[in-house]
C-alpha cells in the first residue's frame, strides 16, 4: 500500500502525493498450447530449439509493437504495452507467426493499473490478465470488456465469449475473443 507523503500547503490545507508506483498498462500473457505433450513428442533437445525459435519470434513482435517483456514463463511471456490496440495487434501477430513453427499459442489481455516493482509488475490487473489467459483456447486472443471498449473504432472486431468467473477475482467478467482477420 502506498504511503502518504506531505507535500506542502495548498490554499485550503495540506495536499498529498503518493509514490509513483502504479501505471496504466495493457498486460498480455501468452502460453504455448499443449507444451508438455509437445515436449514428450519431440524430446528435450528439439523442444529447447523450438522454444528458442518461439522466444525469438515473441521478442521480435514485442519490439515491432513497442511492448516491454516483463518475464518469460518457460513456454510463455508476460509483457506490457502503453497502448491497448498495439497489444492486441501484437497478440494477433504472435498467434499467426508461431504457426510457422508448428505450434499454437493462447493469449489473454487486460488493461488496468499495475504496480511497478522494479523491472516486474504486479497488482490485480496482472492477476486478471493471467486468469483471462487461462480461459483462452488454442489460437485465441481473449480480452476483457474494458480492453474491448478502449479500442472501439480501431477496426478490430470481437466475438462475445460470455460472462465468466475468474478464479479468486470477485464478480462476473465479460470476455471477448478478437475475431480473426
Description:
With 181 residues, this protein is an alpha+beta fold. It has a single domain, classed as 2-Layer Sandwich (Alpha-Beta Plaits). 35% of the residues lie in helices and 40% in strands. The chain has helices at residues 35-64, 84-98, 124-135, 145-150, and strands at 5-10, 13-17, 22-32, 68-72, 76-81, 105-117, 120-122, 141-144, 158-166, 169-178. Strands 3, 4, 5, 6, 7, 8, 9 and 10 form an eight-stranded mixed β-sheet that branches. Strands 1-2 form a two-stranded antiparallel sheet. Strand 4 (68-72) and strand 5 (76-81) form a beta hairpin. Helix 1 packs across helix 2. The longest helix has 30 residues, at 35-64. The protein is globular. The termini are far apart.
Query: Which CATH first-tier class would you pick?
Result: Alpha Beta
Give the oligomeric state of the chains in this entry, treating copies of one chain as homo and distinct chains as hetero: single chain
| The CATH superfamily title | Nucleotide cyclase, GGDEF domain
Task: Determine the CATH topology.
Answer: Alpha-Beta Plaits
Give a short account of the largest sheet.
Answer: 8 strands, mixed
What amount of the residues lies in strands? 35-45%
Mean pLDDT reading: 90
Structural class: alpha+beta
**How many strands in all?**
10
How is the secondary structure organized here?
Layout: E1 5-10, E2 13-17, E3 22-32, H1 35-64, E4 68-72, E5 76-81, H2 84-98, E6 105-117, E7 120-122, H3 124-135, E8 141-144, H4 145-150, E9 158-166, E10 169-178
Parallel strand pairs: 6-8
Antiparallel strand pairs: 1-2, 3-5, 3-6, 4-5, 6-7, 8-10, 9-10
Helix pairs in contact: 1-2
Amino acid at each position: 500500500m502506498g504511503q502518504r507523503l506531505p507535500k506542502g500547503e495548498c490554499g485550503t490545507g495540506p495536499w498529498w502525493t503518493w509514490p509513483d508506483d502504479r501505471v496504466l498498462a495493457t498486460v498480455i500473457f501468452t502460453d504455448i498450447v499443449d507444451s508438455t505433450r509437445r515436449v514428450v513428442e519431440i524430446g528435450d533437445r528439439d523442444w529447447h530449439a523450438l522454444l528458442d525459435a518461439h522466444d525469438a519470434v515473441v521478442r521480435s513482435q514485442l519490439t515491432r509493437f513497442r511492448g516491454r517483456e516483463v518475464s518469460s514463463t518457460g513456454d510463455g511471456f508476460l509483457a506490457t504495452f502503453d497502448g491497448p490496440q498495439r497489444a492486441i495487434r501484437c497478440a494477433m501477430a504472435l498467434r499467426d507467426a508461431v504457426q510457422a513453427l508448428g505450434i499454437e499459442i493462447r493469449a489473454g489481455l487486460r488493461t488496468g493499473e499495475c504496480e511497478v516493482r522494479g523491472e516486474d509488475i504486479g497488482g490485480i490487473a496482472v492477476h486478471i490478465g493471467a486468469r483471462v489467459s487461462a480461459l483462452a483456447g488454442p489460437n485465441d486472443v481473449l480480452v476483457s470488456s474494458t480492453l474491448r471498449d478502449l479500442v472501439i473504432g480501431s477496426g478490430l472486431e470481437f466475438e462475445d465469449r460470455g460472462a465468466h468467473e475468474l478464479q479468486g477475482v470477485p464478480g462476473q467478467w465479460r470476455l471477448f475473443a478478437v475475431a480473426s482477420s
